[in-house]
Every structure is written in C-alpha cells, then in structure tokens.
Amino acid sequence: MIFVVLFGLEVALLVLSGLVGCRVCGQRPRRAVILLFGLALVDEVVIELVHRRLAGAPRPFRGVDRVAYHLETCFVLGWPSALALCGWHTFDGSRLGGWMRRGIIGLWLGSVVGLIVLFPLPRGHTAPALAAVVGLAVGAGLFSIARAWKSVRLTSREGEGVGTLLAAELALWILGAWGQGAGVFTLWDELARMPYILVWLILLEFYWRPCGGESCASFKSP
Q: Which of 69, 103, 151, 182 is found 20 to 30 A from 133 (Cα to Cα)?
C-alpha cells in the first residue's frame, strides 16, 4: 500500500513538473530536476521488485538473485548520488562544482564496483558500508547548499525542492546510520518510505503554486 501511494505521488510530481510546468506561465524546471524526479520513480519500482524477488532467498545470493541484489545496490547508492549531483547543478556552476560532480560520479561508480568485487562482505559490514557512501553523497550535496547560501538560486522553486530532498535524505541517513544501526536499508518501509510521502506532498505543493519567475509575473491572463 505504501508503495502504491509513493508511486502515485511520484508520477503526479513528474507529470506536474515535467509535462505541465507552472500552472500560470507554463515554465518547466531544469532538465536535471525533471530527470531526478524520473529517477526517483524508477528507483521506487526497481527496489520494490528486487525486494519481492529476494524475499526468502538463501544467502549469500547467487545467480539471478545476486544480479538483482547488485542492481538494488546501484539504486540505493545512485539516488543520494544523483541528488548531490542535482544540488551542484542547481546551486553552483563554478569550476569547483564541475570537480565535485566528477567526484560524486566517481564515488558512486567506485562504490558499486567495489561492493560487487568484494561480495559478500563479512557479516554486519554491508549496511555500514552503504551508509558511509550515502553519508558522503549527502554531505557533498549539502556542501552545494552551503556554497549557494544567500544566493537567489537557493530560494528558487528548484532550490527549495532540491534542498528539501537533501534535508530529508540527511534525516534518514542519521536515523539509519546512528539510530538504527544502518536500518535505513533493512527497515525501508517504516523508516524511509513514510517520511518520503510527506516530502513528495511538499514538492507537489511547490510545483503546484506559481513559480514566481519573470515570465510568471508578467503573464497576462486572457
């Protein structure tokens, strides 16, 4: 049921932001933000399918189950990495931003390859390793906000949306890594999906209201 609600909210957000745009002037957000919302939708579906596939499967995973597990890992680490990338794309277009984006991609790719090569990790090491990578990615995204502090980009509708997602991801990372012993991965339904329902509702409100841009302010209704 939680999956159905999240799926519906993510589809609504993707349609509202990417296809409809501002309901007053029709302006759409940057492509990076639309792609981020699209990734969230794909991420939700893939992880749900993998969880169903691996439910009750013997460990360590072998064959198709192992492929599914590594695919899940790609998305578990890919979402916060993509969020950090979107943060730098939205808030900072400087040379440092370019290096940070390359570093985030390298972090994601290196972590995924490393976890595949070292599989299976010793018992109790997988969740902390995932949490460490997620923490680095979220920290990189938050650094982009710090760089943009007092900037108009931070107060734009896109800035509000990306900033809200980064704040939510930070809260979940703290709960998962410290409060539940990296339970953000083992208690996904209870710990992550429920708060994200609230986050998607907030973002739907962001993208439903007029964007406030120049074209929006100068729009003359017939």
A: 151
Residues in the chain: 222
Q: What is the pLDDT of residues 139-156, one digit of tens each?
A: 999 998 888 776 656 666
**Contact (CB, 8 A) for 96 and 141:** no
If one compares 209 and 97, the residue with the highest pLDDT of the two is: 97
Taking phi over 0 as left and psi of -120 to 50 as alpha, with beta for the rest, 67 belongs to: alpha
For the residues 77-97, what does the mean pLDDT come to?
88
User: Is there a contact between 100 and 144 (Cβ–Cβ < 8 Å)?
Assistant: yes
DSSP letter assigned to residue 2: H
Listed residue (36, 54, 33, 41) closest to 8, CA to CA: 41
Cα–Cα distance, 154 to 163 (Å, whole number): 8
Topology (CATH) of 2-217: Rhopdopsin 7-helix transmembrane proteins (1.20.1070)
- Collapsing DSSP to helix, strand or coil, 123 comes out as coil
